[in-house]
Structure formats: C-alpha cells, structure tokens
Amino acid sequence: MPVAIITGASKGLGRALAGALARRGWDLVVDARSAGPLEEAARELRGAGPRVVALPGDVTDGGHRAALVAAARQLGGLDLLVNNASALGAEPLVSLADQPLEGLRAALEVNVVAPLGLTQEALSLLRTSSYLSSYEEVTPYIEKAPYRGDIDTSAAYDPYPYSENFQNSNLSDSPTYVGVSGAVLNISSDAAVEAYATWGGYGAAKAALDQQSAVLAVEEPGLRVWWVDPGDMRTDLYAAAVPDDDDSGRPLPETVVPALLWLLDHAARSGRYTAAAGRAVPAGRSPR
C-alpha cells in the first residue's frame, strides 16, 4: 500500500485529505500539535481500514520530524509528503506596521523552515518510491527563457519557467528519461501572490514556501513537487485570522480534496496549482 505523511491532520484540509487517502487504502502517518484531536482523527481514519500512525508534536522540532519519517519507513516507505501545517504569525491578523516580529519568525519556522526540514528528512524515501513511475510521460520542453512569447512586447513573464518538464530542458531530440519517484505537496495560499491588507506576514511566509517549492522541483526532477493554493475554506485557521468575518458561506475543506487527488491521479507535473472545479489548475490558467 502507498504511504503518506500529512502534517496538521487533526482538522481542516489535512484531516479531509487524510480521510480521502485512507478510503483509497493508503497507510498514513499523521501529525498535529494537540494529542486529543489527533487521536480522534486517527481512530476515524483507521475505521477505513489502513494502518495509521498518529504522532502528536510540533513540526518545528527536528526530533519530531525525524520520528514522522521513521514511522513511514516502518510502514514500508513514503510516496507522498503533505506539508499542510501552517501558522499565521498573529491571531487575529494585523497590519505590517503592527506585525509582531516574533510572530513572523514563528510563521516562517512553521510555513517554510519546517517543510524544508521534513522534506530533507524524507528525501531518501521519496526518491525510492515507485508510486508515480507508471504515470511518467516525456514531453519535450520548448522554451528556455523565462518568458512566453517571442521578442515582441506580447511576451509574458513566466515566474516558474522550468516547472513544466525539467527532465527535457536540454531540448534533445531524444530526451533523457528521468523516472518519477514520490511527491511533495505543499499547501500554499493566494496570499502568497496577492497583496491583502493584514495578510502580509502570513503571505510572505507562503511566498517563501512557493519559491522553495519551485527550486526543489528543479533540483529534484525525479519527484513531483506541487504547491497548491486551495482557495477560500471554512477552517479554524481562517477563523483565527479574521474572527469577525462571517465564514458560513465559505466552502468546507472537503470540497478542495478532489483537486488534490487529481494531482495524484494524473501524476501532474511539478508546479503551482489552484483548486478549481474539482481539479487542480496550473496557476495562471483557467479550468477547461
């Protein structure tokens, strides 16, 4: 059975994705800071049949990250790493003029440093995964410059020019095959690319996560690396960010899960995606 590590899995999007994977037969290693809610989620996940290891702890703790990967190794390996745990940096959110610097440091630790640390810990297992190898397609990469278009003024800047097909960047007529290993799914936010008042600290951390993901995809062409903006959701994180906002009309996290599963089912190329209409759409494009 395939194995996934999911951080922040006691509630919200992490729990919803864990439930969907459990129903598909995935074995899971799940984490959250609070032991009670995590064990409750784990009991529910085990009801679907898979093996589930629940390890409460803080993703900023290197020992905890090592324990998560060790648990995956005991289950047989690792095919998918989901860096879902997030921190706002201030609750409720405040303007940058009032942003506590300690809060910003905490947001960077949880949203940027911890995902990299966990990815580093898990790389040896992810590289040896064969879960996605049967999906591999080799398509020539056409453009070398980070612009789409010709030399006229219609050229549009592409912020992730090499995220579509890294193994073919040399433009060979017979491109070198790079076998696909496991996948890393980093949960981002539209605050990483849009300027929303009071979301500056959190958005800066998620923007750093996006860039980190893009570089990882270039450096590890055998992996699928997806950084995904899930869109608006009704979660405790949002309620803590903007407690006075009525979020009753916001979609539940379960509505985003099909888009994340779409990435797996289609062995989607590495890149930035947004969740839309039950599938993941490459950033800057509309669903077809």
TrEMBL record:
Quote one Gene Ontology molecular function term: oxidoreductase activity
- SUPFAM superfamilies documented for this protein: NAD(P)-binding Rossmann-fold domains
Q: Say if the entry is tagged with keyword Oxidoreductase.
A: yes
The protein here is known as: SDR family oxidoreductase
**Alphabetical keyword list:** Oxidoreductase
Similarity remark: Belongs to the short-chain dehydrogenases/reductases (SDR) family.
Has UniProt tagged this entry with the keyword Transmembrane? Answer: no
InterPro entries assigned: NAD(P)-bd_dom_sf, SDR_fam
Per the UniProt entry, what species is this protein from, by scientific name?
Answer: Streptomyces sioyaensis
Q: Which GO terms describe its cellular component?
A: membrane
